[in-house]
Amino acid sequence: MTWILFLEQALNGLQFGLMLFLLASGLTLVFGVMDMINLAHGALYMVGAFLAAWLVQLTQSFLLGVLLAIPLTALFAMAMELTLLRTLYARDHMSQVLATFSLILIINEGVRMIWGTDMPLPMPSVLSGPVELLPGLYYPSYRLVIIAVGLVLAALLYLAVAHTRAGAWVRAGASNREMAMAMGVNIKALFTLVFGLGAALCAVAGALLGPLLAVQVGMGESILILAFVVIVIGGIGSIWGAFVGSLLVGFVDTFGRTLMPALLREVFPPQVAGAAGPAFASILVYLLMAVVLFVRPQGLFARR
Amino acid sequence: MKRSALPWLLSAALAVAGAALHAQPVSKIKIGLVSTLSGPNGALGEDIRDAFNLAISLNEGKLGGIPVEVVIGDDQFKPDVGKQLFERMVKRDKVDFMTGVVFSNIMLAGLPEAANEKVFYISPNAAPSPLAGKDCNPFFFVASWPNDAYHEMAGQYATNRGVKTAYLLAPNYQAGKDSLAGFKRFFKGKVVNEVYTKLGQLDYSAELAEIRAAKPEVMYAFLPGGMGVNFIKQFVAAGLNKDIRLLLPGFGADQDISRGVGEVMLGINDTAHWALDLNNAANKRFVAEFEKAYKRLPTVYAAQGYDTALILDAAIRSVKGSINDKDALRKALREVKFDSVRGAFRFNTNHYPIQNYYLREVKKDAQGRLVNLLASPQPIMANHGDAYVQDCAMR
Predict the structure, then answer these.
(1) Which of A29, B50, B198, B366 lies at a C-alpha separation of 20 to 30 Å from B213?
(2) Residues 245-274 of chain B whose Cβ lies under 8 A from any Cβ of chain A
(3) Cβ(B39)–Cβ(A118) under 8 Å?
(4) What is the DSSP letter of A218?
(5) Cβ neighbourhood burial of B293 (10 Å; 0-12, 13-18, 19+)
(6) Is residue B35 part of a domain?
(7) Is residue A86 a contact partner of residue A213, using CB atoms and an 8 Å limit?
(8) What SS3 class is residue B144?
């Protein structure tokens, strides 16, 4: 593997990992602060992408559409929290899983009724070409923008959680909810806020990935599974854990997809390697999770 | 003599009566159509369904002179859902024919549900290699093209052009494997690498980085529907189209893909058994009527869906509507004569087509739309069958 190829794959892994982080950070906060398993988190990602596609179409501006989609998704999520999810906090995890799973089905069908099964979300044309980063290293400019946005948001989130009062409440809520309540933190308002924030991050990921992948009903489910893997690896409730976990999953998936078939080709005939390579690569992420669970069952950076 | 002749006579009479009962023309025909109608690959199934329905409605709602009801199901790109739909349509809806599936893995899951109940499946797309050879099935007919065929043509074309190195990419499933086997069968240059990705994968960043490093002369990608749209867009966004020539199978550069990808498709070559401007009366009528009915141009999938209905029409007509005599119906299908939109067509002994394949090119039409037209009216190969027919026990 040449340096150029290695660097390009590293950028790919970083880009994928950062997008996963945007999903996983919201998920881990909701899980950590509210002790609530929200399977419908992926549905918020889908709602964000559809809103972005719709608004980009309406405003004829990619930037404006995406920027409008983010607060709208947050509002949608906060309304959902106030009306429905609030009643679930006191219930056990099984009820939460059942209720939020049914929410996935309802939101999927709702989106299908409003916008149809899929929507076009074109990449802004200025970003549709490659940039030469180093001599010989061309990289799609749109993916670079995604990386930049992901890094900035990760930094902002870190600052907000580590260095603001609201962040201190969130951390207090995540480490000991009862004690935080006893100390006078308005947990109810905090929950709604955290939920809205998580949804806003989802919307960013959905809107940015839309032009690369596809804006379609059901797009949230496959990525939600990976987001759960991330928070299991990183430790529930930990933003730092979600960050490290996301990058780990991003790199393992990207390098696994290209290195595994190459490694197998050294040992097996191309026919076998070609077929077994992708199959092996797709389980690598889960293998990583299994190893982490075995060595550190609470996750790498668990709060509790 | 008399005594011994009696049972013979009786059984002969019974057989005649039975045959007569079988040979009753039916008053109505029910057809089950299972296809991928949602998600990024939904456009493919929609084209098959719409063209199939178009052929029936141009025929005043009849096939072979008998009124038709079409039961439609969306397999959601999932083999298990497809299998359930097949079972439900065959057992509960009691359909007379099944058709519709786009993807080989879904068709292979559903086919036994039909074939075991002696219901004919006429394939408007999926035509995997095992069913052409050792697993060939008396209840399975292919109205499209053998899974390898487009790719064999692409390989032959690359060889004709003197291409030295090629990089191959396909999803990891039966049709993907068939496709790359087909390309390699006729490609005389060097295959630099052969990559299989997860079926339905939408992000190809890791694969594209490897392609850039391998510097092939030609990139051949078998990626139907949304997978292809995403791959080509990302291929262009990564700047690979400047140094590497993209060669595609027919469905990979059709109108639906061009709509999703845009101008960069201009000039891309692909191989197919049909094109919008293929010069025959049936095709002219089909293209005009399809555009009139659905306000878009048909793709190869639509052409295949349309021909599927025409095959049924001709076969049902030739048995005069007596579709319950399965052997007679099979004979009629095997010898079917109809005006295909692709021109000359006949079934091989394994029920796969023997036909011509052409080189096509993405061009602009008078209205400024990206359309896939013949690059040359001369076929790359004429009357081409498949490489598996000798393994099929049906003669």
Answers:
(1) B198
(2) 260
(3) yes
(4) T
(5) middle
(6) yes
(7) no
(8) coil
Confidence (pTM): 0.81
For residue B205, what are the contacts with CB-CB under 8 A and spacing of at least 6? A12, A15, A16, A140, A143, A254, B234, B238
Structure confidence at residue B2 as a pLDDT band (50, 70, 90): very low
- Nearest Cα to Cα of residue A14 among B193, B209, B231, B221: B209
Question: Residue B8: what are its φ and ψ, rounded to 5°?
Answer: -60, -50
**Rounded Cα–Cα distance for residues B89 and B100 (Å):** 13
Chain A interface mutation, best of B210, B229, B261, highest count of A Cβ atoms under 10 Å: B210
SS3 (DSSP) at B136: coil
- If one counts every other C-beta atom within 10 angstroms of the C-beta of residue B317, the result is 17
The band of B145, judged by pLDDT with boundaries at 50, 70 and 90, is: very high
Evaluate whether B40 touches B199 at the Cβ level (below 8 Å).
no
Q: How many domains does chain B have?
A: 2
Does A116 lie at the interface with B, CB-CB under 8 angstroms?
no
Tens of pLDDT along B89-131?
A: 999 999 999 999 999 999 999 999 999 999 999 999 999 999 9
Report the C-alpha gap between B352 and B386 in whole angstroms. 8
Q: Are B136 and B351 in contact (CB under 8 A)?
A: yes
Please give the torsion angle defined by the CA atoms of residues A133, A135, A140 and A141, in that order, rounded to the nearest 10 degrees.
30
Taking a C-beta distance cutoff of 8 angstroms, is the pair A249, A226 a contact? yes
Does residue B6 sit within a domain? no
Residue that terminates a domain, selected from B242, B272, B302: B272
**Domain check: are B222 and B284 in the same one?**
no
- Report the residue of A254, A257, A263, A272 to disrupt the B interface, i.e. the one with the largest count of B CBs within 10 Å: A257
Between CA B241 and CA B2 the distance in angstroms is: 85
Ranges of H-type helices in A164-186: 165-175, 177-182
- Answer whether A108 touches B (CB < 8 Å): no
DSSP B314-380: HHHHHTTT-TT-HHHHHHHHHT-----TTSS-EE-TTS-EEEEEEEEEEEE-TTS-EEEEES-SS-S
Strand B353-364 with B120-123, pairing: unpaired
Provide the domain limits for residue B232: 149-272
**Is B330:B138 a contact under the CB 8 Å cutoff?**
yes
Widest distance between CA atoms in chain A:
66
H or E stretch at B35: strand B29-35
CB of B38 within 8 Å of a chain A CB? The answer is yes
Structure tokens at B261: 């990808």
How far apart, in whole angstroms, are the C-alpha atoms of residue B217 and residue B245? 6
Sign of the torsion angle spanned by Cα atoms B135, B138, B139, B144: positive
| Main-chain phi, psi angles of B196, to 5 degrees | -110, 130
Both B174 and B244 in a single domain? yes
CATH at residue B350: 3.40.50.2300
**CB contacts, 8 Å: A1 with chain B:** 213
Q: What is the DSSP string of A94-134?
A: HHHHHHHHHHHHHHHHHHHHHH-SEE--PPPGGGSSEEEEE
Q: Could you tell me the mean pLDDT of each successive run of 10 residues in chain A, 304 residues long?
A: 84 94 90 85 95 94 95 96 89 91 92 85 85 86 94 92 87 81 84 92 94 86 90 89 94 87 77 72 89 91 69
Q: Please, which residues bridge with residue B121 across strands?
A: B98, B140
Residue A106 CB neighbour total at 10 angstroms: 12
Contact A198, A174 (CB under 8 A): no
Q: Do B194 and A270 touch (CB under 8 A)?
A: yes
Q: What is the ipTM metric for this complex?
A: 0.81
Could you tell me if residue B233 is inside a domain?
yes
B135 within domain boundaries:
yes
